[in-house]
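STRUCTURE:
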């Protein structure tokens, strides 16, 4: 849990901030891919919308001058005036329609972009190694990349609006420069201080949020354990609610204080800078009024200039402010692209060897050692043994001895830190990793209780066969899961687990029968069962074993168990201690040897283990 203060990361340098703008290019590629038609239409509509402000001001100027002209001589409205007013009206309607069409396109395109990015995120996360998932920095990256899905939709419309405003800006400034270039200078005085203020505070906000990611994850985690189906039982029994609440309050009040300080500063500075901005605007206004009173400008000119100056000020200010928000948004994009940059290390070779079917010789551990990332001690070291094709091997050892790690290495969830594992004489790295995993079925002791239908919970063993009801039901009957499922109100269609409406929870042993069903469903050449019967009652365990030889018939199998009644069914038993091989042999051989296995076996036989 949290140890360090909520200081946030140090400020980004200017180059780092604006350098992040280069991320906009790949971002626009993503938008383009989401829908080329919508992207183009959006661009065209915004160009048209960008020209309208200038056109409207020019017409307004002509209208005023026409009115002044008429009112001196005649009392009737001229056709020319009607046409001018009509044109302005038409432009106003067009502008409104364009705004709505643009908003619609933005939101549709935004949805498409958010969906495709989320899919890409899921896809990429699925390809990464287990190592990544054990790294807290990875989770921070993933979290930042995920959090910004909505922000990115906003970023897209902001960049497009920026382009649209740039078109309006170019038109209006041209008019202003033609009249008096000094007005542009006043305009800059009006907007630059406000922009610098905004830029500064955006940077501070980003740094604060960026630095708070680990704590925000902790906050989310506390919220989750405070109220979830999986934790409710222990939270109540151990009365953890106050403990969790106080941790939540402590963290959230730190967030509040840090955010409050920044928000207050931002408001104060924002107010002062806005006053400077108004002073610049009114300076220009007074200048124009004096020139009009002098008679150097017509009333139409006054309307045009005051209007265009005001619009330019608003435009520039929003563009500059938006620019720093865009720069900030691009920094978040960097988090997303950083995440996509993470590359898995466990990959298939360019020309993989065909996976043997059937396996001829089996696996061989050749001086295998493995250390988990960030761990000091070796989980497995100097491991030499073979797992012959068709053999049933049991792994025995105390908690933490390295049994599960060995299985993870065999299925290439990790690669050995030293030594190699051979399959039919070749390093398992020479085979296609997906084919290798497809040839191996592992049911872990901490198997996942998917909050899905009972049928799908078994089908995950071979998900491409999820429509094959016969195979699913057959697997369920072999693993004894069928008797559990038939009692459920909706049978195989019943959602199990408590997370969703109508979900029905199962007991630990019932879940285990479902998980065992996955092994039958998988029907792989190599079967690995990690504590397959730990939660089963005596009768169910016995029945599972009666079927076990059928399940593993003709297959290579690895069985991890602390129960010696299970272990003795294996052809050979490997006793592992502190990551090293201690003994290997058949049940009878090891008993005769009177080593560790015999000691543990006799202890259990006498009821001590
Ligand atoms: N993801 C991990 N990161 C760091 N160390 C780990 C990780 N998983 C396991 N270990 C460590 O590696 C060693 C071997 O663990 P492993 O899970 O293989 O033991 P095991 O024999 O399966 O134990 P058990 O009988 O309790 O299931 C232990 O010391 C454990 O703490």
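SEQUENCE:
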């Amino acid at each position: 849990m949290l140890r360090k203060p909520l200081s946030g990361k140090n400020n980004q340098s200017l180059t780092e901030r604006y350098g992040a703008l280069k991320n906009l290019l790949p971002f626009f590629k993503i938008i383009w891919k989401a829908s080329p038609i919508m992207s183009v239409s959006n661009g065209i509509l915004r160009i048209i919308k960008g020209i309208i402000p200038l056109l409207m001001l020019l017409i307004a100027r002509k209208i005023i001058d026409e009115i002044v002209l008429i009112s001196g001589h005649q009392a009737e409205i001229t056709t020319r005036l009607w046409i001018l007013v009509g044109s302005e009206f038409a432009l106003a309607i067009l502008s409104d329609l364009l705004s709505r069409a643009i908003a619609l396109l933005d939101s549709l395109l935004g949805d498409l972009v958010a969906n495709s990015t989320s899919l890409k995120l899921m896809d990429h996360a699925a390809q990464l190694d287990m190592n990544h998932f054990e790294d807290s920095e990875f989770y921070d990256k993933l979290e930042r990349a995920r959090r910004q899905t909505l922000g990115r939709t906003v970023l897209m419309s902001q960049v497009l609006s920026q382009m649209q405003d740039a078109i309006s800006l170019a038109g209006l400034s041209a008019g202003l420069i033609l009249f008096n270039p000094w007005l542009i200078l006043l305009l800059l005085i009006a907007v630059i201080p406000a922009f610098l203020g905004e830029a500064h505070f955006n940077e501070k906000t980003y740094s604060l949020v960026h630095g708070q990611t680990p704590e925000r994850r902790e906050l989310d985690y506390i919220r989750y354990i405070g109220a979830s189906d999986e934790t409710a039982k222990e939270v109540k029994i151990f009365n953890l609610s106050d403990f969790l609440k106080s941790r939540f309050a402590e963290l959230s009040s730190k967030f509040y204080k840090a955010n409050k300080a920044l928000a207050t500063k931002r408001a104060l500075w924002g107010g002062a800078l806005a006053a400077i901005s108004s002073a610049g605007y009114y300076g220009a206004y007074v200048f124009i009024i004096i020139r009009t009173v002098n008679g150097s400008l017509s009333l139409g000119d006054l309307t045009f200039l005051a209007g265009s100056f005001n619009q330019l000020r608003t435009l520039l200010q929003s563009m500059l402010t938006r620019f720093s928000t865009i720069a900030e948004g691009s920094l978040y994009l960097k988090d997303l692209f950083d995440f996509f940059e993470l590359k898995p290390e466990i990959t298939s070779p360019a020309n993989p060897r065909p996976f043997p079917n059937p396996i001829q010789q089996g696996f061989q551990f050749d001086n295998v050692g493995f250390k988990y990332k960030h761990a000091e001690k070796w989980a497995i070291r100097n491991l030499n043994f073979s797992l012959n094709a068709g053999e049933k091997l049991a792994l025995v050892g105390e908690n933490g001895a390295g049994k599960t790690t060995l299985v993870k290495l065999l299925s290439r969830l990790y690669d050995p830190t030293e030594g190699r594992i051979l399959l039919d004489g070749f390093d398992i790295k020479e085979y296609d990793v997906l084919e290798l995993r497809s040839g191996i079925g592992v049911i872990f002791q901490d198997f996942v209780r998917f909050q899905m239908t009972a049928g799908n919970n078994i089908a995950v063993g071979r998900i491409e066969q999820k429509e094959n009801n016969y195979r699913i039901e057959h697997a369920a009957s072999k693993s004894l899961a069928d008797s559990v499922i038939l009692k459920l109100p909706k049978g195989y269609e019943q959602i199990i687990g408590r997370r969703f409406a109508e979900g029905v929870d199962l007991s630990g042993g019932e879940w285990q029968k479902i998980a065992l069903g996955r092994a039958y469903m998988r029907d792989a050449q190599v079967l690995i069962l990690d504590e397959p019967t730990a939660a089963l009652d005596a009768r169910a365990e016995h029945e599972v074993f009666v079927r076990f030889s059928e399940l593993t018939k003709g297959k290579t199998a690895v069985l991890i168990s602390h129960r010696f009644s299970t272990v003795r069914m294996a052809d050979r038993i490997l006793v592992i201690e502190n990551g090293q091989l201690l003994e290997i042999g058949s049940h009878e051989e090891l008993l005769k040897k009177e080593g560790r296995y015999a000691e543990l076996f006799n202890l259990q036989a006498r009821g001590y283990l």
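REMARK: The two ends are 35 Å apart (CA to CA).
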